Records
---
Amino acid sequence: MLFNSLAYLIFFPVIVLVYFLIPWHRVRNGMLLVASYYFYMRWDPRFIVLMIGVTLVSYFCGLLVSISQKEEAEHVEKDLRRTGNAKIYTTVTIVAMLLVLGWFKYANFLTGNLVSLMRLIGVELAIPKLNVALPVGISFFTFQAMGYVIDVYRGTTEVEKNFFRFALFVSFFPQLVAGPIERSGHLLQQFKDKHTFDSRRVLKGLMLMVWGFFIKMVLADRIAIIVDQVFNYYTSYQGTILMLGAGLFSFQIYCDFNGYSLIAIGSAQVLGFDLIQNFEQPYLARTVADFWRRWHMSLTNWFRDYIYFPLGGSRVAKWKKYRNIMIVFLISGLWHGADWTYVIWGGMNGLMQVIGDIINPARKKLLAKLHVNENSFGHRLVQTFLTYVYVTIAWVFFRATSVKSAVDIIVGSVKTLNPWVLFDGTIYNLGLNQMDFWAMVISLLVLLAVDILHENKIQIRESIMGQPLPVRWAIVYAALFMILIFGIYGPGYDAASFIYFQF
Amino acid sequence: MGKVLKALFKVVMFLLIFVILFYMIWCILLFKQEDGTLPMRHFYDLPEGSVDVLFLGTSHMGMNLSTDILWNKYGIAGYKCWGSVQPIWNTYYYLKECLKYQRPKVIVLDVHSATFGYVYPDFVIQIKNTIGMRLSQNKIDAIMASSPKEQWGNLLIGLPVFHSRYNELNETDFEYFPWNRHQNITVLVNQNSEQVFPFDIIDKDQSSGVEPLHEKEEKYFRAILDLCQEENIPLELVACPYQIGEFEQKRYRRIKQIVSEEYEGIGFTDFNEVYMDYDIDTHTDYLDPGHFNKWGVPKYTAAIEQVLTAKYDLPDHRLDENHVWNKVKKTKASPVYEMDYKFYGDGKRNYVDTGMKLLDNIMDSWTILADFTVPPFDAEDRVILSCYDETPDHYQGVMVNIDEYGKLAVMFSSFEDIKTDILEENSRVQLAIVKNDRRIDVYFNGEFLGTHRADNLAQYSGPLLVGCQQNENGYFFRFSEPIVYDLQVFDTVLTETDIKSWEPRNLPEPPEKEYLSDEEIASGQLYTMDYSFSGDGQERYIDTGVKLYEEQDASWTLLSQIDPRIDAGDTVYFSAFVEDMNNYRGLLVRRLDEGKLNISYGQNKQIVVDIPVETPSVLAIVKETFYYTIYLNGEVIVDGEISPCDVHDLNLLIGCQVTMEDNLFRFSGTKIYNLEIIKGIMSPEDIAAWKPDPQPEAPKPIPSDVEYHLENSFAGNGKNFCIDTGIQLYDVADKNWSLHLVINYDKTGRGTALSCFAEDPANYRGLLVRQIDETNYNLTLGSAITNLTVGWDPVIIIDILKEEYHYTVYMNGEKKFETDAATKSWDGNLIIGSERLLNGSFFRYSNQKVRKLEVTASIPDEAEILQKCSEEYITDYFIK
């Protein structure tokens, strides 16, 4: 089930109503678990087996790790030899999760590369392509489960003995499909608390959902029309149009992903749960490193805690630190998709952080010599713009279907100088007519304004809540109807066919 | 508890406002298709009990039947609840929904949709046949029957389907709020189309046997039959005639079988088998293979009416003032034509064109109500109203006039009329003519006078005129002198009661003719000549840029001061005239012989008048809509002649005309001292007072400098070498110059020595000096071509003298010839050794050897020329 579907619009209010009408806490969790499984099964009921499998493995491994650690503790007390079982169970979990991911997500990528590699040395391999569908949310819930067991192993979270509660942690429907990737220490505990109906919280949650729907349906899906046109037919366009397509993709993916995250966080908030923030005005970042502190924060933190720090983090020799950064970002690229384009995308992001770190002292010296105030608005603006440009170039690899097409798009966008296409009506032939195009531009300006307000620590929802009721409602109605009218949703119809009368 | 209730109240209020806003937006964005959606939505607005006959089906019902005609002609209250390509399950649910609000006396179903044979139609068909229904169980059932599961929610809510219509909203979209009522009889779709699609309907015996109906279609077809029987409402099945296929024939047979064998009292008329009985012509009455045009719709409607009235006793609701369509009709713009002012015929030019093409469709029904005086019997013409075809051997239509005995006659042809008794001259009478299909009833002073069966009436596309007639060429004639106090035309059949109760309106007097005030004359200037025009008969003209005939009924005044003396060229003063031999029209003023002025105006009208031969004349032309008044030297020479002509977009040109192919011609040597064009009509007094001084002469264009001296001798290579001197000999056509050319003679030489020539196929002109053979040079001077035979001298010395358009040519100091050759100007340079195309490229490179070339603006005398020649002989013969 997608958030922006009619089914969710029915599903969610029903769940909320039932949830708060049930007086018993345990039953509420049970209901949420059933609802989450139903939510997942609406996409493909077969994969619920996978979900339960992942849950079972991580649940029991978590338990075993906990038991082993207690044994270990006793051994330490009794000065006996350590068993090392906890490590084994943790490893089993990691391997199991990676196998699941590998099978569903990377099998074809790996075999495809193997075949290509062998062909280079003259060996023809005939490995049939696996015809498996990628289960929705697999990257998220496997990481979440894996994180839990590692946390138990590290002792940073308590083991969860209640299977159903743990199952709910793995499958909690708001963040099941596209995150945020929750941490057991944060979310699991919340399932133990009873959540009462708090109208203020519910309202705030609903507002967040509305904003999420707005940027997903009005912005992301509208921008996608132009982006798809430009990227799918990039050979037909030159210069400014390619630049526009690339530039807009940065916003499409931000609006799409952030919109989805906000709906997830808002949905959870309505039910009384607090999910971690996933985006923090990423395009106001001044460096690529800063961008990654603001972009898909739950994943970045996951990689930081479970890969970057174990590798030594930044408290190692410089070259090791850079190695660690590159490893994390190459894996991050691969996590996003099983293709070299994603690997390059990840690599570019890592590389720029390394370069940024290397040249930082020189940059600072230069600025000091030139008497440039680093905190001046102009300098910050230039930094923000350059970061956006670089991130956008990297995004081209993320969006393009092949490395070659990504390179063609980047080269094509600077090879020809044709800014007049912005004024001669060409931009209205990219899938959006004039009105839709300007609806997109205005919505983007709204998004930018909201991000700037958030950056300045202005809580918009709090401000709205502080308004008199008619103003409050007017804002909500306006947002709702903006989505209902200007959102990209529903079945398309061929307007031309209405004007023909057939037999 | 209080808090909870307060919160609950807030939630309810929030949702309530949301639902209201949602519904308003839903109403705005909802599709407003004239098929499917609107017929259903409008149905809800009808008061209970207002529909006697409910028509159901596809476009075959919706587009081919006119419930307007049923109402206007027969008073049958019928409503079409239809949709194009409407699947029969949608028809079933439309019927169920309709029966919740109305209880018709009979239901007519076009069974075309029972022959489609599909499970789900295209998505747009699903949309328009469900989306107009109110939210109800029927709508839910209709959607479930119409669409696959994944579309149910979208169709039920609607907004997901049509929310993106924000791009295409118009005024109509804001007329569908719950408080708006749409109670028109029906929505018209293409019923006035004049498109013709001829075809033949296959013979009913072309196929045999029956074809079973598709399972789903049969299920709903039977459901309709069962529902009607349950509700005890008579059902009539029809199949509209169209370009039918064999399988459809077989399915119609199956329908006939089901109806006759399993149901009682349900009629089925397959018009594909009997269409000819109803005068339906497949070669003229269709706009496409399945739908009637404006000539077919009334015929099919009449056929349906016959089927209905033969079996059912349907009341005539036209007399029921409370019936919704009577109310709606009264609030609608009916009558369709009303005269604005009283009309006073002057027997000369006054008339009114109502624009009502009454006989454009012979099946149309209408009513004319008129209140007028009987014109004098001794008047030459006594036409009051006419919509009458004057094509020879085809005299027919409707005309009201007074015959030679003083009887009022409503004429339908040369030998068909309805007459009154002898009337009194100038008596005031009222006349009503009611056309109902082919029946025409005439009422005189509120009493029935007679009826006429217009079987011979043929289509005529002319308008209804008051006070005159129109001949076969479109000219108005037989201007009469009635006074018409009121005239109204209705597109409906008015009842006798309506006619008896008609009270003519007291119309205002026609407005006085309004002349322009001085300020308006000053501000309404469309064109004023700044300088006198003096044509050269070659190229000189002025394009005023004023389009006098862009609008057919434009009014303007043209004032001109023209000189009768013409020295050169043609004799056109000014023109905005289309030279179409089939339709000469516009304005053309030109002189014929000395002292004769010819003025053509409007459509094919002209006058020839005498003008003084020595002194300028003032000519004023006033066009008031279609009427022309022309003044010459203060005297009226044309007094309000009517001459409407087809519009054209030619500018008024001074000194020439333009051909059909847009080429200028008839460049004239006319002189015009003043010309003004003013929007509107100037009074005769103002025109008489218009005696301006002649405008000054236009400053002559300044000719460019022609001084040129060839520095070194030129020897052409015949391939790619020439010299562009940079001077222009014809930038002003009548400029003066002299040219001294010395050529080293070569008997084998050929080609162009000098050129300043326009390679313009429409008008070759300029200067060319070319060697054409051993002994001959060919000279083009302006437009005159002459040969110059040379001897065997080693040099040829040519002197060309040009004074305005007069050329004198010397060779070797000896005068050879003189010629006059006026041409238009040409802005090309003088070239040595080649010629130049219009696009600027050089061609015809020659091997001529030009030893000397001098061009100067002064004109030498013979002695000077001789002197120069003798100097040439002294110098060396060889090229330096």
---
Amino acid sequence: MDIRIKNRRIANAYYNLGLERAGHRDLTGAVAALKKSLRFDKFQTDARNLLGLIYLEIGEAGAAMIQWVISLNLQEQDNLAEEYLHAVHASRSYLEAADQAAKKYNQALQYAKNDNEDLAVLLLMRMLDEFPNYVKAQELLAVLYIHHEDYIKAGSCLYQVLKVDHYNPTAQRYMAVAKRNTGRAEVEKRKLKNAFSHRQMQDDDIIIPPSYKENTGWQSVLNILTGLVLGAMVIFFLVMPAKTESLNAMHNQEQVANLEIINQKSIEIDQLNKDIETAKAAREQAETQLASLVSDNGGVLSQYQNLVKILEAYRTEDARTAALLYVSTDMNVLNDGVLDNTVAWIHADMAENGWQTLLAMGDEAMNGSGGPAQAIDYYNKSLQIRPGNTEVIYKLGLAYAALEDTDTANQYFGDIIMNYPDSEYADDAKEQRGY
Amino acid sequence: MLDFETEITRFKPSLEVGEVEEAIVREDLTDMTDLMVEFLKGSKE
């Protein structure tokens, strides 16, 4: 017999086997048979088309398309693959969804392999809502659930798989694990044992239908009581929980509303407290300002009083009092704009004459009854108006020397020697220091 | 009990629709007839 014919027959036999298995929804078995059929005869178009259909059924749209495209290439006429491809292409949304599903499955597989099992589970769960027939994805999800010891969910996935592919060996293996861990295997085993443990019927055995029951008067009463008890139980277990749940829900809603009101009030209280704090701070600031205005020495009011006294001294041509008052007045706070010209005039006069008046008062004190201590005070005030005046610094040194405070005196002489070496008092200062 | 690590290695990626064209090119279509013809050719030579 020709090799081709022999191979074709074998291929046909495998195709028939695959077809039968597919009819019993043994899709894994059918795929194996159909692949063998194609291995013997690649032109077995029916086998290839059926293989594509099975792939589509288990969610593998890409693999299905491959088989149909090849099938159409090998047999261009009278080929069902053309219809299948048209149908798939016509439903763009299905094709896109199937592609997305494959991508998500691949992504989930990556996650699972890289210890991101939670992400893999999430991705598969969402994808399988749309594609429950995706066998590989259901199996992967089942493995992940088994790994997390969630055998009930794993069983649910495997149930889906076995609904599509009744004898899927992988799913059966996983299902055995799931059943063993949920106790389901034991229950099934018991059922199976009971099914085969019945003794053979004898001729005199009577079969009483399960619906037949003899009712006596007591039994009727008992039945009524049972009915009442059952009714009460229904109310207690079914109606009451629903009612309680609805009351709880209402109560929860009220609580949420109350909590919202409390939150709102808390926010308002916080805001009011902040306002009180702000008001307190403003009051304290105002009190501080007021205190600074009315305080005896440094207060603004005192400075204005001093200014009035300075002007009065000028009016009476008492330059000494004016100079003494000037040095004890903080002219910087008198900046209300009204007296700017007056203040500027006083500054100018003091810069020109005030320091000399105080120097002269210092000299008088040195030579008169005031003594060096009084002179030091006047000299310092003169320096306050005109800092760096070497004559005054030198005389301060002399005043301290007269008080036998040599250290301080030397500081003043040293100041001239170091900082004003070209001044006319530099030589005198050196002489005082003994250079 | 299943060994998760072993089981996970058994799962292979699915074919995406965009990869169909490439996969068709890669598909090995050699059947038994091709092999035998090839074998007979070789033995005659």
---
Amino acid sequence: MAELIRLDNISKSYGDNEVLDELTLTVEENQFVTLLGPSGCGKTTTLRIIGGFEKPDQGRVYFDGKDITDLPPNMRPLNTVFQNYALFPHMTVGENIAFGLKVSGKSDQYIKDKVKYALKLVNLKGFENRKITQLSGGQQQRIAMARAIVNEPKVLLLDEPLGALDLKLRQEMQYELVRLKKELGITFIYVTHDQEEALTMSDKVVVMNDGYIQQEGTPEQIYNEPENAFVADFIGDSNIIPGRMVEDRLVEIKGVKFPCIDGTENGFRPGQRVDVVIRPEDIEIRPYGEGLFNGTITSKLFIGVHYEMLVKQEGGKFEWLLQNYDEHQVGSEIGMYVRPENIQIMHKPQSDDEKRMNLEI
Amino acid sequence: MASRKWASPFIIWIIAGTVIPILSIFYYGFTTRDGGFTFDNVTAVFTHDHMQALGLSLGLAFASTIVCLIIAFPMAMILRDSKFGKEGFMIFVFILPMWMNFLLRTMAWQVLLERAGVINSILAIFGLPPQQLMNTPGAIILGMVYDFLPFMILPIYNTVCKIDSNLIEAAYDLGASKMTVYARVIIPLTVPGIVSGITMVFIPALTTFVISNMLGGGKINLIGNIIEQEFTVNSNWYLGSGLSLVMMIFIIASMLILNKFDKTGGQALI
């Protein structure tokens, strides 16, 4: 796939507050890229720089090989779906969708057909003459999508578009967005703080914190192989524990030695201090004494598909987070086992910059 | 209902302050000195002097409203875009003259515009001949704009402040130029403020007699001056009331026209 957008060494501050620090990011053609991070991590600023609403203090923005850093938003071949939809309240649904086409001087017949097509695409056929105030939140969301895609942009920027919708509608719209992206065959750049949204829809997830990119990769890579404690903590529930390499492919955590698949070949020397991530669903429950270590269940919560349990390690104070499909009683003593491939070992932050990346933990 | 009990002072106020005066104006307007019914007081507006004064009033009020609008809209946009809390101070500066007495403010312009006044003195320094500034329609428009400008700025500023910045960004995002963004998004969304601003400037400007008295030197008669003279100098309440009723028709008509432009915000005005 060809490179479509490149952010090169972008920095941006508001007063003393540095929002982006030498950020470099590439977006390929026809990708669904999600910028994911907590509020204040710089994800929306990044999107606004791509859209042309903010000027970077330093660095360039390239689109299709051309430098567009100084191009105003109305000259950029991309469209935005705003967080609060930003539909024009003094216009009908049809007029809202037609706005971009009218501005670019398309013929009346072309506009009429395109508006009809766009409404069909977002499943709101025949809504042309409705007023914006008559629409529900979900419908407004769809109209905002229609208004953007009707201009056939090469890239669609979406700023937390599902943030204001309730859970069920949000899940529905996630499917809709993926379907729309397939039908249109364009690039989506999506901003969210919701890790579930990021994992379900994206081809590529960019996890951001504190103006830095923490990790880029496919949803699977981000979830299964977090590069640092911040990513591991932000994506899903995790047990993040400091540990020490004992020897090649053996790590000691909380006094227990776990066989793992990392070692000297990817830079972990024996004796080195590391961070270890173990996902709660990766801890298997065995009969007492038959796992790698034992513990007592201290609490149990049923959360729909599975049970979530806290297990206090035998002879220690540490409580492990577990998820299991089977019910186990509070107070029962169990053995626990983790497969070597499910133990994710991460380097401890070394430099000041790296420390800053991990500050949130 | 408790609210009804509390409403009684306001009902008394409305009856004493609005209903009775209007009824008495209607009474005097359609009565002769002998107490008989007549249309003469109202039709008196068609005499040459009255028509001329009415025409001039409409013209000057219209001109000063337009000038106020031309100044107020960009001003409101500048106030909207200014950052760091400066806008509070700017608004304060604009409101400040309103704390001074209206007559005093108009009198200040007399001092500035007089034949031997401040402006002509400055002109004299540069060797320019003195200008006739006082007692001209221009002086009256100037006075009206100066006195009524805050009433135009405040409602417009209020509405432009409420426009969501995302709407403006969305318009740019969809490819609109600055001109188009103003013409198709910002101005249409400001209509309620523009309508109430126009109403609040045009109506007092149409009926004023103080500004034309002070800056027109009695040489320029507006319809407001004529009505005032009928009540005070000529003690002819009948003719004064009749002409007031005609003015009322003009005011109601102008509000109806304005309401056509703004179906939501303007309803409260009439």
---
Amino acid sequence: MSLITEITISFFLVVAGIFGLVGSFGLLKLPDSMQRLHAPTKATTLGVGGVLIASMLYFLLVKGTLSFHELLITLFLFLTAPITANFIAKTFITRNVRDHDLPETGGNYGWAPYDDPPPQEVDLPDDRTGQ
Amino acid sequence: MMTAALLFAFGCFGLGLLFNLWRITTGPDAADRILALDTMVINVIAMLILYGIYRSTAMYYEAAMLVAMVGFVSTVAYCRFVLRGDIIE
């Protein structure tokens, strides 16, 4: 293992460790629930991303095998992180914020936890439209 | 040097897990607990991949992938239970 390889992998590992720690520390430190939602995104993107980059480099440069499992994990985490954050924010709004405390949405419909979903134009198949 | 960096990253993510555990026990609201559990899953994924580098085996990717999927599904299920009182309507 050459020195450059080792330095690169170690750099990514240290950066990932620092960002993971910062994400969890922000979860502990920030005073408000909605602010706490902001901190673990760092752990998701940069922490796990750095570890995955280090792992890809290690298996590519040291072991000589190229693997795409890391990219799969990164893709899955990046796809699911916004959905999770949206669900947690909705949970917090439902339990702690009342309807009249929320600002106007500015659109045609209200906030999702309190208002009914907008009526949808359902395209029924032909044999079901006539009841 | 790489072993030292690996140990450093292990320590960071392990300390992060302890922080998350503290937030789970003292979290004032259910949303905080769900968020702390989700972050815990993220940290565990990172630690699994680190352990794979440490043992220099590619066996732990599948475990990390499975943990990621189970963590996402459990977070969504917990949130839906709090939101709607039911998981599958």
